[in-house]
Write a structure and sequence with these properties.
It is a single chain. By secondary structure, the protein is α+β, with helices and mostly antiparallel strands. The chain has a single domain, classed as S-adenosylmethionine decarboxylase, CATH 3.60.90.10. About 25% of the residues lie in helices and about 35% in strands. It is built from four helices and six strands. A six-stranded antiparallel β-sheet has the order 2-3-4-5-1-6, covered by helices on one side. Strand 4 and strand 5 form a beta hairpin. The two termini are about 25 Å apart.
Length: about 140
């Protein structure tokens, strides 16, 4: 991967048919957010912030969580009764997106994962000298 061509990978997973016990377990979500960064070579700089959510649509209740990593962030939103979870992992440095994808799908036992990966920040200047020269 050419680090000069874009800022970083953004891995997004739309997980359906998940294990409802796991996506509804506050401690499980906390531990997932706490341990995944280390497993994929990231540096966790805060403890995860995880809380249950019950909004205007009763069947949309679930858990929302977020952890700040030195490289950016990792977030999750679950919808327990619907068996869905949405996970985002954004990083300013390259990482093994296939390994991260597999660990996330495995953690929530998703039978129907949909994976999206985009390269964010096209043309982001990695070197301030290059940025000044281009100006």
């Amino acid at each position: 991967m050419n680090r000069q061509s874009y800022f970083g990978p953004h891995l997004m997973l739309d997980l359906s048919e998940c294990d409802q016990k796991r996506i509804g377990d506050l401690d499980f979500i906390f531990n997932f957010l706490s341990t995944l960064p280390d497993k994929i070579g990231m540096v966790k700089i805060t403890q995860p912030y995880v809380f249950p959510y019950a909004g205007l649509v009763p069947e949309d209740k679930g858990i929302t969580g977020f952890v700040v990593i030195a490289e950016s962030h990792l977030s999750i939103h679950t919808f327990v009764e619907k068996g869905h979870a949405f996970v985002d992992l954004f990083s300013c440095k390259p990482f093994d997106t296939d390994r991260a994808r597999d660990l996330i799908i495995e953690a929530f036992v998703s039978k129907k994962p949909e994976v999206h990966m985009i390269e964010r920040g096209a043309g982001f200047p990695r070197n301030t000298h290059l940025a000044k020269a281009a100006a």
